[in-house]
Amino acid sequence: MEQRFILREGNSSLLLFFAGWGSDECLFTRPAAEGYDYLLCFDYRNPDFDYSQLEGYQSIRLLGWSMGVWAASQTFSGKDLPWEMKLAVNGTLTPIHDTTGIPEAVFNGTLDTFSPATLAKFRRRMCGGTEEVKHFLDRQPRRSVEELYEELKALRQEVLRLPVPAFQWDKAIIGTEDRIFPSQNQLEAWQGTPVLSMNIPHYADLFFTECLKGKEQLWTKD
Q: Can you tell which superkingdom this protein's organism belongs to (predicted)?
């Protein structure tokens, strides 16, 4: 996967963000919380992770969004790291699943008919409305359709091949307007984990600005 420091100033604390499928630094280059370095992870065609980039940090905030929730869970399952908090947003440990993820027929339909038109339709559903689409397009990832197809195909292969990761998140934020990971499926998936329901679609520009900046309401474990 790609691991890119958006901010690296020698802070003792790190914000580690596993973004969703199709992301890059264009979408998530934004200010981080004061006192934190900021490492962004994306492009899950290759699952390899360089753990050496985490060395020296005394405290790590983990943020996972969409497919990044699953990718982070696989990457850190069984790892002992100085977690401050682990926050999952609009994703689950079983991202291709009829009752606790994206319904399998929907996921397969997107992959099997993938094209520029399919991608545009997906992004409209992801953003939930015209205004949010405009915000997304202002930060649109600079990745080719071919590359995104390869990543989606690799994700399906690995999600179906690997066991459900044994990883515990501290809190899950569920967008009640999410049209990618149905909110009811997320609620089913996060039984036993503290949940915060918010009136946001799958991708919400202002939400991520506030979340990366460390908005206190979001970064509390209860």
A: Bacteria
Token representation of residue 169: 């998140």
Residue 218 token pair: 């979001």
| Global pTM value | 0.96
Q: How many domains does the chain have?
A: 1
Residue 156 within any structural domain of the chain:
yes
Task: Give the CATH number, domain containing residue 122.
Answer: 3.40.50.1820
pLDDT digits 0-9 by tens, 138-196:
999 999 999 999 999 999 999 999 999 999 999 999 999 999 999 999 999 999 999 99
Q: Report the sign of the C-alpha dihedral through residues 48, 150, 29, 183, in that order.
A: negative
Instruction: Give the residues across from 15 on adjacent strands.
Output: 38, 61
Distance CA 193, CA 171 (A): 6
Q: Which residues pair with 174 in a beta bridge?
A: 197
